[in-house]
Amino acid sequence: MLKGWIRQQNRANRSSTISMALMGMLNVGSGVVLAWNLAAILAELLTGRTNVNYTHLIFFVCASIVRVILGYLQEITALRSGEKARKRLRRALLERFFTQGPSLLRYQHSAALASMLTDRVEALEGYFSRWLPASALWAIAQWFVVVVVFTQNKHAGLILGGCCLILPVFQAVFGIATSIASRRQFMAMNRLQVRFLDRIRGIATIVLSGNAERDAQALGQAAEELRKRTMKVLRVAFLTSAATDIAMIVALVWIVIDQGQQLLHGNSSAHVTGIIFSVLMVPEAFAPFRALSAAYQDRAQISSTGEAIQKLPAQPKSTLTVDTKALKQPQRNENGASLEVEHVCYRWLDDRPLALDHVSFNLESGDIALLEGPSGAGKSTLIEMILGFIKPLQGHLRFGGVDMAQLHPSEVTRHISWIGQKPVLFAGTLRENILFASPDVDEEQLQAALEASAITDYLPMLPDGLDTLIGEGGFGLSGGQAQRVAIARAFLKDAPLLIMDEPTAHLDPATELEILQALKKLLKGRTALISTHSPQFHNIGETKRLIMQEGRIVSQEISS
Amino acid sequence: MTRLAPFLNVWKKRWARLLLGLTLAELSICAAFLLMGQTGSRLGAATASGAVGFALLRWAGSSRILLRYFERLATHDATFHVLADIRVWFYRRLAQGAAAGLGFRRSGDLLSRLVSDVQSLDSLYLRILVPILTAFVSLPIVIWLVVKNSIPLAISIAVLFIITAFLLPFFAARIAYRWGPDLQTAQAELNNQALDLTTGLRELRIFNREATAKEKLFASEDTFYRLQHRQGMAMAHIHAVSLFLTKLGVICVLAACAGIVFPRPQAVMGMTILFVVMTALDNIVDLPRAGLILGQVRHAAERVSEVTMVSQTSHQDGQNSAPEGYEIEFKNVSFGWTDERPVLNDISLRLREGERAALIGPSGVGKSSLAALLLKVATPQRGSITLGGGNISSMRTDAVRGRIAWLSQASHLFDDTIRANLLLGRTNISDDEMWSALEQAQIADFVRSLPEGLDAWIGENGSKISGGQGRRIALARVLLSKAPVLVLDEPGTGLDLETEKAFLKTLNGLEQSRTILLITHRLLGVEQLDHLWTLKDGSLASHRL
Q1: Does residue B321 lie in a domain region?
Q2: Res. B338: pLDDT tops 70
Q3: In the Cβ-directed half-sphere of A185, how many Cα atoms lie within 13 Å?
Q4: Is residue B78 within 8 Å of residue B17, measured between CB atoms?
Q5: Please, what are the domains in chain A?
Q6: Which of A248, A375, B468, B533 has its CA 20 to 30 A from that of A42?
Q7: pLDDT at residue B105 in the model
Q8: Above 60 in pLDDT, residue B284?
Q9: Per-residue model confidence as pLDDT tens digits over B349-381
């Protein structure tokens, strides 16, 4: 599952991986030209030729410039491909979020989802721009260098090839240990970071309970423990790097000694060039492998991100088989729209008891029903089902005479308004937050909604009126003020069915009464289902009372 | 650089380790010079004179391997030490003052941004300081070697070296610094948009605005990537320049070897110089990029030190310990978080030992400020507050907080076990005490039903349990405290009516010696009170019961 996902990512990035690897190969090629000409110049110096030969120097300069340009292009390509990959991944994630819909919030905290969209996606940059090209390139590039050296000097080629062969052996010895260890170390680092962030967020709680010093010491100990563990890991992990160093330096020293002895017995300029060339190519042969090791951390990232994404609930299979356009629209009259709930069942997780256990009730157009019961009775689950966020495992919901299973989720929400405990205020102006509901309304309709929701009462107190910035980093609205924004949104949407989930749970009694006044206006001409604990709702004009307990409706009363 | 001073101070106590890492790095680069120099000179000598000994080469090779290994270990070890120190230091500084105030104002996001700033300080030693200081040592070695041969060549190499290793990084740092926090701001904006989108999933679906939210997110993504692209391009450009300069250095030496422009060196010497110069230049080629990073680290450092400076200045602590008695009295107290907006105006109240009181008022009128004053998070502009007859301004802050336990509206639940959340680092509390606190907070049955019991993990800010359950665990934590005074700020938030009533009833059953101040927006009728106060427009009114 995870491997399949990673393969899929690799495939999507293939074209830029290949182009980066090709540039890498060209870079190695220009490195060969560079070293060859350098060796030639030195050979002339060593064999004592006095006439100046410009050709090699010109070649060297040209190859240097090519190398600089190639390096530049490689970096830019990496930049672009990393960006493209992250954009692609973010879009795929968003698609998944929206397909799953708001019920996702039942499984994961919104902050965790947000960090998946941002931090986790961003952390993958290195995987696409560094690891993938390095892993595609290293073996080919390394053996290309070995072969080139072999053609120039058989001895040196064999020595270099032998040392390169040892690398995979070292890898086998240390590699497995290192990969497990570095993954563990990576996770431990991550955990310390998360712990630190968690402590800092909750620092007031700790400070005010008088435990700050103790906790600081505990934090220090945790970091110290992490250091000890990490160092244990690094001692082994660095052995892999040391192994690369050993292989390289052994190759270098061996070639110098071996060839040095040969040089003692007279030689031609071409021979000397070959030897110096071989020595110069030694670091070049190991460079691709170093690039690979340097990108190892990036590889660990993709697995951890992949795991997090795999943990998201699976996308629901689309049960929509009928052509929606052929179907009739939900019926609405001047009193609202009807809602019939028939024996619906639902459970959030397979091993949990039913959250909704054969729930049935009817609302006629214009009915106002109160939904009561202790927390955890299934009220919120029922509301999410009516809103189309989740589909019943059994049973049916009929809305305006149409089976909801045959409506697209967005078609369902088009006819329903919802007011929760606290509305989400988006970063932006108050006007944007209200018009969020229906951006096309005119100024007159906006004014009417402001009046009806009594936002006009507090508007003069805001620094910039309707253009006051609210939400993240903006002016803080109180609970009652925010709830009026939700009411204004519902007015503007003008849907026949209104669902409310404890709309006054966070308000003081005085504010609650004011909100109730605004709600009464909103209820006119709509069918409503209101989940609440507050006795204040008992004179809002309700026609029904539904009481839920442990996923069942235990009592249905009709009020006058 | 002055802004980096406080962090360098943190480094001070690890100077030995930092110095060891640095020394090994220097020795390691010297070994590399020796190795490559020997490679050049032995090859040269073998060709030119025929007299060859390889002992020094072998020795240089093996010391390079060993030194490189131990250098890596030592520098990483030092980095981890400093990393831990900086976190603890930052935590302490924040805890000393700013934290409590920030907590009252709920600036969780500001704090998490600071955390990532602290994180970026980690690269200072390993990625910036060690390489630059290594360059300082390699420069004289290289010059000493070349100058014996040709002064013009030595000058050329020195100029190229200084530009690449010092001037380019310096200017790169300047440029990156001048960009300011643009990139961080753009990233924060992207994070905000993502958070808006995920928290608003319900609203977006209901009002059919998913497409708009997506566009907004993509717009901030575009801005962020545009800025990131600018930085990436700058990195690519500056790296290309430094790569070119280092190649130019090699070309200079090669020209000398070919007898062009510079005087031709003797063969063996020429080989040696070439190999050493190549090694030295290879080692500095990444420094300009490090300069760009330094520019950003400076910004991070400034933000961190700003916050910690504030906490230093606003921190004023008394000397005395708290007295035995715990009668609380506010005398003509006036207070506002800012001078323009006073929250409390000439408030006086008295809460005797063991009395129960409720403070009622709509949200946002300053009820929590009263708790903040009592806990010495803030100091009143006028008036005095006494605890057990002594003015709290003369007492040590932690002594006051040891006498008054506080349940805030935003009480944080840690991503840890229930046990750890209850103990908060305390070690002197038995399981029995924990269970009885859980019992009082009406949550013991739930905890018992968990397979791991007290050791169950509750997730990030209690995400694995419901809001009401989390709230009750926070309550149990406060009840566990030995403090004789309990200040409960909206204890009913997130509880359903029945649970809240049941909880308030258990408060009635607590030891009579404990003082309780209940801050709430409504009464449920089950509270047994000695005082009922309401707060409106900054003034306090007492009501008969």
Answers
A1: no
A2: no
A3: 20
A4: yes
A5: 2-304 (1.20.1560.10), 333-558 (3.40.50.300)
A6: A248
A7: 46
A8: yes
A9: 999 999 999 998 766 667 778 888 888 877 888
pLDDT, mean of residues B170-188: 87
A349 close contact with B: CB closer than 8 A:
no
Residue A559 distance to chain B (closest CA, Å): 23
Q: Is the pLDDT score of B313 beyond 60?
A: no
More confident residue, A409 or A96: A96
Inter-chain residue contact B198 with A97, CB threshold 8 Å? yes
Q: Map residue B12 onto helix, strand or coil.
A: helix
Judge whether residue B308 has pLDDT over 50: yes
- Shortest distance, CA A2 to any CA of chain B (angstroms): 24
B527 lies in which domain range? 328-543
**Helix/strand/coil for B415:** coil
B303 and B189 in a single domain? The answer is yes
Which residue of chain A comes nearest to B107, CA vs CA? A201
Contact between A20 and A78 under an 8 Å Cβ cutoff? The reply is yes
Task: Give the residue from A166, A201, A231, A412 with the most B CB atoms within 10 Å of its CB, the best one to mutate.
Answer: A201
Cβ contact (<8 Å) for B463 and A53? Answer: no
Please indicate whether, in this complex, the C-beta atoms of A249 and B61 are within 8 angstroms of each other: yes
State whether B196 and A64 contact (CB < 8 Å).
no
Mutation test of the interface with chain B: which of A426, A534, A538, choosing the one with the most B Cβ atoms within 10 A? A426
| Cβ of residue A117 closer than 8 Å to a chain B Cβ | yes
Which chain A residues in 502-541 lie under 8 Å from chain B, judged by CB atoms? 506-511, 533-534
Query: How far, in Å, are A425, A426, A461, A489, A512 from residue A456 at the CA level?
Result: 18, 20, 10, 14, 17
Tell me the pLDDT band of B508, cut-offs 50, 70 and 90.
Answer: confident
Is residue B495 within 8 A of residue B472, CB to CB? The reply is yes
Determine the average pLDDT of the residues in A25-45. 92
In a domain, B369, yes or no: yes
CB B232, CB A513: distance < 8 Å = no
